[in-house]
Every structure is written in C-alpha cells, then in structure tokens.
Write a structure and sequence with these properties.
binds flavin-adenine dinucleotide; D-Amino Acid Oxidase, Chain A, domain 2; 2 domains; six-stranded mixed β-sheet; 11 helices; single chain
Length: 418
C-alpha cells in the first residue's frame, strides 16, 4: 500500500519506520527542511513510562492556583478569546477527578511501557545511537508534603506493575551523587528504574536516515494546505509543492493536526501547550546529573544527554505562538543551578520552545477516522518521545489489519463519543 505520513516529528518518523518495516511504500511530508525541527527538537529527553500520567488529576485545579502565584511558576495562562482553548479547558476540567485520572493514566502507562520496549528492540536491531542512557529517573521532593503525597502515585504504579523505589535523602544521593552538596534542599524522592533518557532530535534524524535507506521517501520543505476527500475516502494531500496521492494517510502533525482535520469535519481536541528548554554543555561531569532529575516543585526535568544537560519545563496555555519568553529561561536556570551548582555555565545555554500537542484527557489519539483511509497518530502532549515507537508500531499493525500487541480501542477518537 502507498502511505503518506503527514509530519516528520518523532511520531511521524517512527510511524514511517514501522510502516516500511511492514512492507508499505511510505512517503513522509513536512514543511521543514529536516525532521524533528518543531516540538521534537529539544524536549526534556525523558523516556518515562513511570512518569506517564495525565495533567488532569483530582488535585490539579487546586494546585494550578498555587502554581499561578509562584515566582518560578510551572504554569502560565494567557487570557485569550480562543474558543478552542475554552473548549479544551472545559474538557480538561471534566477529567480532573479520581476515576478519569486512573483510567487515563492506565492507558498512558500501557502505551508508554510498550513504547519503551519497542525502542529497546529498535536500538538492539539497528544500533541507533542518540545519547541514550538506561539509568532510571529520580522525582525529587523538596518538601515533606510532596514526599507524603507519593502514596497515591505508588498505589497506581503498583496496580499497573511499574517498578519504583521510594528513597530517603541518602537514597537520592546514591541515584544522583552530584546532589550531595545540596542535600539540605530536598527530603526524598521516587526512583523509577525502568525509565530512560535520550535525545529525541538525534533519534528522529537518525531513524529518518535509516528509514530513507530502507526506501521511505521524504518530501521535506512541503507545506500541507489541506486534504481532499471523495466518497468517504481521502484522495490526496494538497501541498504548496502540488498534490500527493496515496492509498492511506497518517495525520502526525502534532499541534497542527486539528487545523487540517477541521475542514474534513473531524474535531480533534488537541491544543498546544507551550514548553521551554535550555541545553548547556557539561562543565563538570562530577557535578552533573547522571540521568533525569524531575524537580517536583517547579515541574522541571534536568536530564543528562551525553556531554550536555537539557533542562525542560513550563506549561504555557495561549495559542500557537513560539515566541521565546526570557522569564521562562530564568525558571529553568534556577532549577539547574539550585540542584547542580557548578555543573555547567548557563551563559552558554541555548534556549528553545516547543508546542506540546495535548489532549484534554492525556493519552494521544491513535486509530481510524470516519474516512476509510485516514488514520491519526497525534496528540502525544508531554510524552511524544516516550510513546513514539509504541505509537508507530501500533498504528502500523492497525493499518496492516494485524492484531496489535496492546489494547488500543480506548486510544482512538471514539473514546470522546462515549
Ligand atoms: C519543553 C518540552 C519538554 C518535553 N519533554 C518531553 C520528554 O521529556 N519526554 C517526552 O516523551 N516528551 C516530551 N515532550 C513532548 C514531545 O516533545 C512531543 O510530544 C513530541 O515531540 C510530539 O511529536 P510530534 O511528532 O507529534 O510533533 P512535532 O515534533 O511537532 O512534529 C510535527 C511535524 O509536523 C510538521 N508540520 C506541522 N504543520 C505542517 C503543515 N501544515 N505542513 C507540513 N508540515 C507540517 C512540523 O514541521 C513537524 O515536523 C516535551 C515537549 C516540550 C515542549
């Protein structure tokens, strides 16, 4: 089958890889000159089934008020007269209860664990290198209240079979020795030994090269302007470089997916949630993290990527603007220098922003649409790197009519119609 994959972020490229492995003729279309130039460019680098959870939880509305008042706030909301934002927030609030949280988290962990395992297979099968480490993740609690609250998370992790260790201060230092000089700044942590780290951009670029060598065609620099339909099927993708015809089409345009689906009468509840990162060369390896430290107070992840440190965080709601706001850099620098003083010279940091394609409930949308030959693989929010390989493999199974390795009926668009 000829399949057009729309989007060359980590999700689109992983989809193309698994579709090609299944024997299809695959063309990837993207407006950028190279893969992974948008949200997959400089994310926090966590491959984290252990932290796979929806943002919508029973405590989120209460916590959001506290966050909005903090100096280094993890949450910023720009008041916009945007019906899409309003609709998204209403749906998000509808998921802020215990039952929805448990349901959504279970779906996300299932896909994330599968994805981490598929990534491991891909790494073993191809030798792909992307500054990868398999050393777990440490969620660091600065306050006793955070440490006491860990029970609700560990209960869910136990139920879902995700390994974890609750650590005291010394346990945190064993996991991340560079934290020793600042041990008075935290009280304990949660270690997720199954989590991994790696550079999503490097991975996507290198997987695209492998895919190209295997026969996938990349049509880069082509802006998609619409999809043409006829009789319940998509007949072509329109781009500023002309039409592209395939037998099936995969929507993997991240935060831009809803814009291309709306004219087809498909409402996809994905809204951009802006985040920021800095990347700094390691100055002193002994003073740097060995894996990811998630600073729970500021919701900032500090990750070692080879000879660099990536610091990522902030959730900004307010449209599709990719303007860099200096205040956000300050929050990221604060987390890094507060926990790892002397690790790196932050004057050398590169500053970046990206738009997380977020669904209001948390899991991405993977599966069919009302058009026989249009498939969705989008809406991965905070976890697109974590879930990319599993999502690509699942989608390839669905398109090929094979029975997927994991349950999937609750990951598609149909879940919003219940
Ligand atoms: C600060 C930050 C930190 C993050 N940290 C993590 C993390 O630690 N772990 C994790 O798992 N996830 C993380 N994420 C989330 C993750 O980066 C995203 O979920 C993931 O990159 C989404 O991938 P995607 O392929 O769906 O979208 P994208 O990477 O945005 O790809 C979409 C592609 O579509 C193309 N496109 C869009 N519109 C058009 C058009 N009209 N025509 C042609 N091409 C078009 C774009 O050029 C782009 O290449 C983070 C995100 C941010 C912002």
């Amino acid at each position: 089958m000829r399949i057009a994959v729309l989007g060359a972020g980590v999700v689109g490229v992983a989809s193309a890889w698994y579709l090609r492995q299944a024997g299809h003729d695959v063309t990837v279309i993207d407006r950028q000159a190279a893969p992974a130039m948008e949200t997959s460019f400089a994310n926090a680098g966590q491959i984290s089934p252990g932290m796979s959870a929806p943002w919508a939880g029973p405590d989120t509305p209460r916590k959001a008020i506290t966050w909005l008042l903090m100096r280094h706030s993890p949450l910023v909301v720009w008041p916009l007269l945007d019906p899409a934002l309003f609709d998204w927030v209403v749906r998000f609030l509808g998921n802020c209860n215990s039952a929805a949280y448990a349901r959504n988290k279970a779906r996300m962990v299932r896909l994330a664990e599968y994805s981490r395992d598929k990534l491991g297979e891909l790494r073993a099968g191809t030798g792909i290198a992307y500054d990868a480490r398999q050393r777990g993740l440490l969620q660091l609690f600065r306050t006793q209240k955070q440490a006491d609250g860990v029970e609700s998370d560990t209960f869910v992790l136990t139920t879902l079979g995700v390994p974890f260790e609750v650590l005291d201060r010394n346990g945190c230092i064993v996991q991340e020795p560079a934290l020793a000089p600042v041990s008075h700044k935290f009280v304990g942590g949660l270690k997720l030994p199954g989590d991994e780290t790696g550079d999503a951009r490097l991975f996507t670029e290198r997987l695209a090269k492998l895919a190209e060598a295997a026969g996938v065609v990349f049509r880069m620099g082509a802006t998609i302007t619409g999809l043409q339909s006829e009789g319940g099927r998509i007949v072509s993708v329109e781009t500023d470089q002309g039409s592209i015809i395939a037998d099936a089409y995969v929507m993997a345009l991240g935060s831009y997916s809803p814009r291309l689906l709306r004219p087809l009468g498909i409402r996809l509840h994905v809204y951009p949630v802006k985040g920021y990162s800095i990347t700094v060369p390691v100055g002193d390896a002994a003073a740097s993290p060995v894996s990811t430290v998630m600073d729970e107070t500021f919701k900032v992840a500090v990750t070692r990527l080879g000879d660099r440190i990536r610091v990522g965080g902030t959730a900004e709601l307010g449209g599709w603007s990719t303007r860099l706001r200096e205040a956000r850099r300050g929050t990221l620098v604060h987390s890094l220098t507060d926990l790892f003083p002397g690790a790196a010279d932050t004057a050398q940091a590169s500053f970046w922003t990206g738009l997380r394609p977020m669904t209001p409930d948390g899991p991405p949308v993977i599966g069919p649409t009302k058009f026989d030959n249009l498939w969705l693989n989008t809406g991965h929010g905070t976890l697109g790197w974590t879930m990319a390989c599993g999502s690509g493999a699942l989608l390839a199974d669905l398109i090929g009519g094979r029975v997927p390795d994991i349950q999937h009926d609750d990951l598609g668009l149909a879940r919003y119609r219940l």
